[in-house]
Amino acid sequence: MSPLLAAAERVWGLCYRHLALYRRSPPRVIELMYWPILQMVVWGFVTAYLAGVQNGVASAAAGVLLGGVLLWEAALRSQMGFSLSFLEEIWSRNLGHLLVSPIRPAELVAALMAMSVIRTLVGVLPAMGLAFLLYAFNILAIGPVLVLFFAALIVMGWAVALGVTSMILRWGAGAEALAWSVLFGLTPFACVFYPVSVLPGWLQPVALLLPAAHVFEGMRAALIEGRTAWGHLAAAWALNAAWIAGMAALFMGQLRAARVRGALLGIGE
Amino acid sequence: MTALLVEKLTKRYRPDRAPAVEGLSFALPRGATLGLLGGNGAGKTTTIAMLLGLLVPTSGRILALGHDMASDRFAALARMNFSSPYIALPHRISVRENLRVYGHLYNVRGLEARIARLAEELQLGEFLDRPAGELSAGQKTRVALAKALINAPELLLLDEPTASLDPDTGDWVRSRLEAYREETGCAILLASHNMAEVERLCGHVLMLKQGRVVDEGSPARLIARYGREDLEQVFLDIARGTRAEGVA
C-alpha cells in the first residue's frame, strides 16, 4: 500500500468512528440541524417585519440578513464540527488510544476537517432549503462564487478550531467551553449584517484581519450590487492561508508541549 | 533479537521535582515477556507512556522494533499495540465498529476476516454488534484485547490487563496472551499489580521504586533471593524497604 493510500485509510478510520456514532444517534444529527434552522427562522421573521416597515429596501435587507445568517452558520458549524469531534475523543477517553496508534497529527487534523465539512453540510443545507421554501430566499442567487465564499468561511472555522483545540491541549477539558463561545465572540468584527465601514475607524483594520469580514463584504456586493468582489475574495483566502498556517503551527506546538508535560495522560479527567 | 531496547531513560516532569523515572535501561527480546512491578507512583505508567510515544523522555533512548521512538515512532507504532483498562474505546459505537476503526488506523489488510478471527478466538461473537459501553468488565477486557491484537503486533504493551476481572476471566485472558506469544513470537511488556499473573507470564521482572529499578531477575530467582514463598512477598519487602534475614 502506498504511503498516501495508507494515510487516506487512517483518515477514513477516524471519520468512520464519527459516522458510526451519528448512525447510532439520531438526536446528534437533529442537533446539527437545529440551530441553523432556528437562526434562519428567527432572522427570516425579522426580515419579513422589516420588509413590511420599509418596502423600498425589503429585498436587499432580506438578502443581506438571511444570506449573512446562513453563511455565518457555515463558519460556526465548521468550527464546532472540528472542535467537538476532537472533544468527543476526550469525552469518550479514547484520545490516548488514538495518539498511540499510527495516525499522524496531520492525519488527525485532516479527519477532523473532513468531519467538520460533513457536519456543516448536514447542518446548513436544510436551513438553506427552508429559507427558500419559507421566505423565497435563494442563496444560490449569489452565483457560483457562493462556493468560494462558503469554503472560505469553512476554512476560517478550521483556523479558529485549531486555536480552540490548542487551548484544550494546553489547559485540558476545562477549556472546552471555548468550543462554543470563541467564534460567537468574533461576530461583531466579522461584519455579518453590516458593512465594515459601520465600525469605528480604529476597529476597521481589526475586522479586516478576519477572512469573514471580506466574505460578507463580498456577499453584500453580490446581493446588492450584483457584482463579484474579487478583491475581497482574494483577501479572504490570503488571510485564511495565514491564519491556518499560524494556528496549525500553534496546534503542533501545543501537541508537542503536551507530550513533554505529560498532559495527554490525564486529559479529560 | 531485541524487540525493545531502553537506554538510560529518564523523565522529569518539573526541574524542581524528583524524576518520575530515572536511568531505566533494559532489553526485551522477541518472544519474551517482561514484567514492570512497583507500587503506585513507582513510574510504571510514565514508562509505558514513554514507550508508546505519548510522553517525551527528558533523556535516554528507546528503540522499538528497531525504530528510534524519538525520530521514527510511527513506523514502530504500526507494529506494536497497547491495552489498558484505564483508556476506553468509544462506548456508543459497537464492538465491530470499534475494531473496524482501529483496523483502518493500523492499515490492517483483510480487516473483516481479521475481525472474524479475533471474534472467534476471543469469544466476542455474542456481543460483536452491541455498543461497547453496554458490556460487562470482562467483555470489555476481551474487546480491549481484540483491539490490541487487531494489527497482529510484534510488541504488545499491557497495563493491568486483568484488572477488575474475576479469577476465571483473568485466567482466560492470561491463557490467550500466552497462546498469542507462542504463536507469533510477540514480545510483551506487562505492568501489573497481580503478582500471580506476573509469576506466570513473565520471564524477567523489573522492580521499580520511586522511578528507579531497585531489583530485577526472573520471578523464581527473586523469590529465592529474598527467601520468600512468592512474588507478592518480595514486592512487599521492596515496597516497604524490609528484607528477610540473610538477604544481601
Short description:
The complex is a heterodimer of chains A (269) and B (248). Chain A has 269 residues and is an all-alpha fold.
Describe this structure in words.
The complex is a heterodimer of chains A (269) and B (248). In chain A, 78% of the residues lie in helices and 0% in strands. Chain A is an all-alpha fold and 269 residues long. The longest helix of chain A is centred in the N-terminal third of the chain and has 34 residues. The mean pLDDT of chain A is 90. With 248 residues, chain B is an alpha/beta fold. Chain B is built from nine helices and ten strands. In chain B, strands 6-7-8-3-9-10 form a six-stranded mixed beta sheet, sandwiched between helices. A four-stranded antiparallel beta sheet of chain B has the order 2-1-4-5. Chain B is globular and about 50 Å long. The chains are: A mainly alpha (269), B alpha/beta (248). At the A-B interface, α1, α4 and α10 of A face α1 and α3 of B.
Helix/strand layout:
The complex is a heterodimer of chains A (269) and B (248).
Chain A: H1 3-23, H2 26-53, H3 58-91, H4 95-99, H5 105-135, H6 145-171, H7 178-190, H8 204-207, H9 211-225, H10 230-261
Chain B: E1 2-11, E2 21-29, E3 33-37, H1 44-51, E4 59-64, E5 67-68, H2 73-77, E6 80-83, H3 95-105, H4 111-121, H5 137-149, E7 155-159, H6 167-184, E8 187-191, H7 195-201, E9 204-209, E10 212-217, H8 219-225, H9 231-240
Parallel strand pairs in B: 3-8, 3-9, 6-7, 7-8
Antiparallel strand pairs in B: 1-2, 1-4, 4-5, 9-10
Properties at a glance:
heterodimer, A: 269 residues, mainly alpha, 78% helix, B: alpha/beta, six-stranded mixed sheet, four-stranded antiparallel sheet
Average pLDDT across residues of chain B? 91
Number of helices of chain A: 10
What would you report as the Rg of chain B, rounded to the nearest angstrom? 18 Å
Number of helices of chain B: 9
Determine the oligomeric state from the structure.
Answer: heterodimer
Structural class of chain B: alpha/beta
* Order of strands across the main sheet of chain B: 6-7-8-3-9-10
Helix content of chain B: 25-40%
Radius of gyration of chain A: 20 Å
Overall number of strands of chain B: 10
Distance between the termini of chain B: 32 Å
Main sheet specs of chain A: none
Strand fraction band of chain A? under 5%
Shape of chain B from CA axes?
Answer: globular
Overall number of domains of chain A: 1
Gross geometry of chain A: globular
The residue fraction in helices of chain A comes out at over 70%
For the largest interface, the chains and their residue counts are: A-B, 32 and 36 residues
